[in-house]
Design brief:
5-stranded parallel beta sheet
Length: 424
């Protein structure tokens, strides 16, 4: 299979030119090893027992590999983390190690690696990396504060976005024919829950309940539903519900495996707007996984199904999963720019903005996601509210849509950008 360049690739190369060690985090099958292999001079596979045994018996072996050395699936032998840290202290130069892993080990290394090993997260393919259209609007330009003029058109329509939501962004699964996608994602989920989760030391005694919890989490995509509401939706008729301690352990394990990718609440570093909510928005690593957990394919996604499972949500599942797809893409674009992505919601729910992209200086870009081709005044009211409060510290305001054209609204200058045309 031909390698598809990742937006993260150039950023990783830049990091290795300046930093001694980089750890690439991300869910299973996201493409970490393939990207890292293109930058490495040698590779050590710790999912192969002979390699792990050799390193265990001969720790100095690590020093004899050329640099950069890729250490793949490092979490299977956590002691290697501390050995990398000590090697960094000895050699004191950039470009020494790349560590990749699809989970954070339950047995943590003795030292965090702070100041020596820098983390970066690889997410599934963004819309740009999927090659469905040439981007015409750059996130970097929207973040520079100049409010550039916008143009560009695309033929990508709602049905295409529905297909992308269910196809997913994992390199190894994207080529799967539509009729076999359900089986492919079922196999992926079984591999993660039945093999990888126990490797983290998590013994799941209520496997069906865990899967029901994941389905309820998928139904809560793009909401801030409480974890109590998610558990109640997962076990509506179950009088013997799993304990809070059990569900917290599940959640922590799934986070360690990068299967959950919640979007944090915006902390408003410059203005301290009053009464901001603190709950994260729920997202799985890939909206295709959420669609499969909910039993939805590209065709049924377009028939306006209700959210179900007693999770409160305005709109449809398509709207929620489209927002999740856009959120995933924006996070991919923002990472190399050094920008943070979060969401804004007031505690009373009167105002919310789907995505806040914040520069290191605290100034930000606001993005609303609408799964419609056309927008009206109601679609921009929260953006206009935020403009009034932040003034020039709001660098730009954008509505991402399923429409055909990129432009600015004449009445307020708010940008309207089709999701397929937004790029890094």
């Amino acid at each position: 299979m031909e390698y598809v360049s990742r937006i993260l690739d150039g950023y990783l190369a830049d990091m290795l030119s300046a930093l001694p060690a980089v750890a690439i985090d991300g869910c299973k099958g996201v493409g970490k090893t393939e990207s890292a292999s293109r930058l490495a001079a040698a590779r050590l596979n710790l999912d192969e027992e002979p390699e792990t045994q050799a390193l265990r018996e001969d720790p100095a072996r690590l020093d004899r590999f050329p640099r950069p050395l890729l250490i793949d699936e490092w979490q299977l032998y956590p002691a290697v983390w501390d050995r990398v840290r000590r090697a960094v202290d000895r050699e004191q130069r950039p470009g020494l190690f790349i560590l990749t892993g699809s989970a954070t080990p339950s047995v943590t290394p003795k030292h965090s690696g702070a100041g020596r090993i820098v983390h970066v997260q690889m997410r599934p393919f963004s819309l740009v990396e999927r090659g469905i259209a040439d981007p015409a609007v750059a996130l970097a330009d929207l973040l520079d504060g100049t409010r550039p003029a916008l143009s560009g058109r695309t033929t990508v329509a709602i049905a295409d976005y529905a297909d992308e939501i269910t196809r997913g962004g994992l390199p190894g699964l994207r080529a799967t024919p539509a009729r076999f996608r359900a089986a492919a994602w079922d196999g992926y989920l079984a591999e993660v829950l039945d093999r990888d989760l126990p490797e983290l030391g998590r013994v799941v005694r209520r496997r069906d309940t865990l899967r029901a919890w994941l389905r309820a989490y998928a139904a809560a995509t793009a909401t801030t539903a409480s974890y109590t509401a998610i558990l109640d939706a997962a076990t509506p008729a179950d009088t013997d519900k799993p304990s809070k301690v059990t569900t917290i352990a599940w959640r922590e394990a799934l986070l360690r495996m990068w299967l959950l990718d919640p979007l944090p609440a915006w902390d408003d570093p410059l203005h301290r707007l009053s009464r901001l909510g603190e709950r994260p928005k729920h997202h799985l690593a890939d909206p295709a996984l959420a669609a499969r957990l909910l039993g939805i394919d590209a065709t049924t996604l377009l028939t306006n199904p209700a959210a179900g499972r007693d999770i409160p949500r305005p709109g449809t599942v398509f709207g929620a999963l489209f927002e999740s797809l856009v959120t995933q893409s924006v996070r991919v674009y923002a990472e190399p720019l050094g920008a943070r992505v979060s969401h804004l919601r007031t505690k009373d729910g009167d105002h919310e903005v789907d995505l806040i992209v914040t520069r290191p200086d605290g100034k930000c870009l606001a993005i609303e996601v609408k799964a419609t081709p056309a927008i009206d005044a109601a679609d921009v009211k929260h953006l206009r509210w935020l403009q009034d409060r932040l003034g020039t510290d709001l660098l730009d305001a954008v509505v991402v849509t399923t429409g055909p054209a990129a432009y600015r609204r004449a009445e307020d200058g708010i940008a309207v950008v089709p999701a397929a045309l937004l790029g890094p």
